[in-house]
Amino acid sequence: MTYDVIVIGGGPAGASAAVALGRALRSVLLVDAGHPRNAPADGIHNFLTRDNIPPAEFRAQAHAEVTRYGGSVISGTVVSATPRSVTLADGRTFEGRRLLVTTGLTDELPEIPGLREQWGHGVIHCPYCHGYEVRGQAIGIIGTSPMSLHQAMMWRQWSDDVTFFQHTAEADEAALLPLRARGVRIVTDKVVEVVSDGPALSGVRLSDGTLVRRDALVVAPRFLANAEPLASLGLTAEPNDFGSSVPADPTGRTAVPGVWVAGNVTDQMAQVVSAAAAGLMVAAALNMDLITEDTAAAVAAYSPPSGQAQ
């Protein structure tokens, strides 16, 4: 069959769009590779009525909701696409009238031994996502970019015990002054290792061998759009100060006719709730685009009854 819309990516943006399109009586295929960005996290926050739900449970419920409204959900990785078809790694091909890409992004982490193993637990980045859970604890910010100074200033809101490890971030005294004024401790030695005691974070080891104990560490990843399925369409992610993203107009429409994007692949700062909202809004725009096409086809084929005015 030819679906009205094929959605690549089963996260909050893709699943929300698929539900909205199903409720609009559109045929939808949702293709999910099964590698969600938030898989390491213990729970989702800032989503009304869904606070602290594990990401895997949220995803399962979202996919069940897609099928409840008539959508199809399949597992697979899209390796190439056209505006009207997708090809999966296993060779399967599916056709659709529109393509919505919601493949999210990848967090590029600093190359510090032991850091990746703590990602999503002892090592975090967003105070609105995780700040409440570590409030009042000993927090360390590992500086890698100008964004790290911004993070240090923000995280001071959640704790009186904040240490800024300057690491590779360039910052003169004028830039550090606001942190000092807020009581943030400054450490200039480089971090050479993130130290854990079993599954629990212990702290960081500095270049002089000192172990500074911390309950939580904060880093500033580079947010890189997962734009691989778009390459065969001639669409690429554009670099920016935070990583890369796929450009689109406010409705999610890209430069390639028939291809739309939503969620973190185009909005690096979207949290789960805002990505889901974006999926809904793009679905509405997609549905209207299909209505316009259907109406044009109906008008072209319309033949008024005999004797009726043209």
From TrEMBL:
Q: Where is the FAD/NAD(P)-binding domain?
A: 3-279
Keyword RNA-binding listed? The answer is no
GO MF entry, a single one: thioredoxin-disulfide reductase (NADPH) activity
InterPro entries linked to this entry: FAD/NAD-bd_sf, FAD/NAD-binding_dom, Ferredoxin-NADP_redctase_2
Q: Which UniProt keywords apply?
A: Flavoprotein, Oxidoreductase
Query: Catalytic activity, per the record?
Result: [thioredoxin]-dithiol + NADP(+) = [thioredoxin]-disulfide + NADPH + H(+)
Query: Signal peptide: which range, if any?
Result: none
Which PANTHER family does this chain map to? THIOREDOXIN REDUCTASE 1-RELATED-RELATED
The name this protein goes by in its record? Oxidoreductase
**Species annotation:** Winogradskya consettensis
